[in-house]
Amino acid sequence: MNRQSLISLLGVAAITAVVFVSAFIWSRQTSANWIVLRSFDQGRKASAADSSAQIVMVYFGSSNCSFCAADSLPRIVQDVAAKLRSEAAERDLSFNAIGVSLDSSVDKGLKHLRTVASFDEISIGSRWGNTLAFKYIWDELPGRAATPEVVVLFRQREITDSGYSLVEEKEIQRKVGLIELSKWNRTGS
After folding, report:
1. Can you tell me the distance from the alpha carbon of 165 to that of 184, in angstroms, rounded to the nearest whole number?
2. Running DSSP on this structure, what letter comes out for residue 135?
3. Is the pLDDT of residue 181 over 60?
4. What is the dihedral of CA 29, 59, 146, 153, to 10 degrees?
């Protein structure tokens, strides 16, 4: 290889490096503008100032799921929760993170959820017969039975004489699988 070819090759390598670094910086800026609730905002009837209106993130996973054991999953779930919490606060909505472990062993399920994120509520046990799996995957808001999975909900409650009453609960977003969750966290889509 002559000197001119070597200089050309180094120039191409430098340009390629600049393109990759620029793409990385752009992707980080794009993720900072991650807005999952934009479509939710359109036509919403609930008052944002009503403290009983909230955004809920439900994480489904288990200790025996190889994708749920991926080193990258905790950061992804924690980032998604932080972004949703921030978006909810911008709309004067409360935020609630629920962790659901589909393990049959409560000890294994609790250990799994503790490694993934800090949750406001947890539900563990009964594998796919878990009460929240039944509600958000099999029955009321059916989805795909796979883990890891994150479902984002809008929930409107009202206080009655007998306690809380659920006025509305609707799905805003559902992401299934490590690849889908990772892409969603990076790009918001």
Report:
1. 32
2. I
3. yes
4. -80
Residue 20: is its pLDDT beyond 80? no
Token pair belonging to 6: 């070597």
For tokens 């299934």, the residue is 176
CB atoms inside a 10 Å sphere around CB 155: 18
Q: What is the mean pLDDT of residues 145-173?
A: 88
* pLDDT score of 121 more than 90: yes
For residues 176 and 144, the answer to whether their CB atoms sit within 8 Å is: yes
Q: Token pair for residue 92?
A: 């004067």
How many other CB atoms are there within 10 angstroms of residue 54's CB atom? Answer: 18
CA distance 28 to 33: 9
- Integer Cα distance of 9 and 33 in angstroms: 37
Residue 110 pLDDT exceeds 70 = yes
Can you point out the beta strands (E) in 41-93?
Answer: 53-61
CB-based contact 95:85 (threshold 8 Å): yes
